[in-house]
Design a protein that fits this description.
By secondary structure, the protein is of the alpha+beta class. The chain has 10 helices and 6 strands. It has 2 domains: 140 residues, Glutaredoxin (3-Layer(aba) Sandwich); 113 residues, Glutathione S-transferase Yfyf (Class Pi), Chain A, domain 2. The chain binds glutathione. Glutathione (GSH) binds next to loops.
Length: 270
């Protein structure tokens, strides 16, 4: 019986061909990228490895960074959670103990000491984890445009880091509270707080370009895109979240449209 198998033994669904794939899920542009990057080739040992989970917004940041830089990487799918065949796709949010992760994915845990995705491993031996640190590492390791932190501009580089952290610490955290809280009153409060953080962010955005800094993309765009995708898709589905119609949210909407048109971002939509 599937339910008697030890945790993690059964594979959670990753593509429409998998047993646990939920029939209501449609394959998106990102699934095509995954299929292409998963294909083991003779040169795979010489490629940078991306340890990732297709559903993880943090991991998607690292994924976008590699796609933007045009890196020939290989995609290594990790499921850091227990598998429950009763749930859609087999996905739970129950963390596997680090020893189990080590046994299942030894290379991954060598790159990510706590067994969190994302992490990258370069054939030269470099190993980096934590999404925003991976993005910055990829920026410097592949030292050509597009640059995720503006070169030679210490103040702008600092601001890019500050607003990238703001995405995680303020916008993402408040959205998560809105999603997790079951009490409608608390949900309304969380929604208000979430909108307020979004407006603060929008006011910090450049007025002369679609991206956060203006004409060029930066780490801030990469930091927010996976989460904005979930604010729209997950928030809309589970909380009927509709973004307000005001100058701040219109600015964010034009930002979202510009990012969605970039092939590197589009290639990661799942
Ligand atoms: N601060 C980390 C967060 C990464 C993270 O939470 N990843 C989740 C998946 S979305 C994970 O690996 N969870 C496994 C676990 O908690 O054991 C980052 O920015 O990379």
């Amino acid at each position: 019986l599937a339910s008697e198998e030890p945790p993690g033994k059964k594979q959670a669904a990753q593509s429409s061909k998998d047993e646990l794939w939920h029939p209501s899920w449609v394959e998106a542009t990102g699934e095509r990228t995954i299929a292409q990057r998963l294909r083991a080739g003779p040169q795979d040992g010489e490629k940078m490895k991306l340890f990732t989970s297709w559903f993880c917004p943090f991991a998607q940041r690292a994924w976008i960074a590699l796609e933007e830089k045009g890196v020939d990487y290989s995609y290594v799918e990790i499921n850091p959670y227990e598998v429950d065949p009763q749930l859609p796709g087999g996905y739970t949010k129950k963390q596997l103990p680090i020893e189990v992760k080590k046994a299942m994915y030894p290379d991954f845990v060598q790159s990510s000491p706590r067994g969190l995705v994302p992490a990258v491993a370069d054939p030269n031996g470099d190993k980096v984890w934590e999404s925003l640190h991976v993005v910055q590492y990829v920026d410097e390791r592949f030292d050509h445009p597009p640059f995720f932190l503006p070169k030679g501009d210490p103040l702008k580089r600092a601001h890019v880091r500050i607003w990238s952290d703001f995405v995680t610490e303020r916008m993402q955290k408040n959205f998560y509270m809105l999603l997790m809280d079951q009490d409608p009153e608390k949900q309304a409060t969380a929604k208000g707080a979430f909108f307020a953080e979004c407006r603060t962010f929008a006011k910090a955005m450049s007025t002369d370009g679609p991206y956060f800094l203006g004409k060029e993309i930066s780490m801030v765009d990469i930091a927010l895109f996976p989460f904005w995708q979930r604010f729209l898709w997950v928030g809309g589905y589970y909380r009927g979240l509709v973004m307000p119609d005001d100058p701040e949210f219109r600015r964010l909407q034009s930002w979202w449209e510009a990012c969605s048109e970039r092939p590197a971002f589009k290639n990661t939509l799942v």
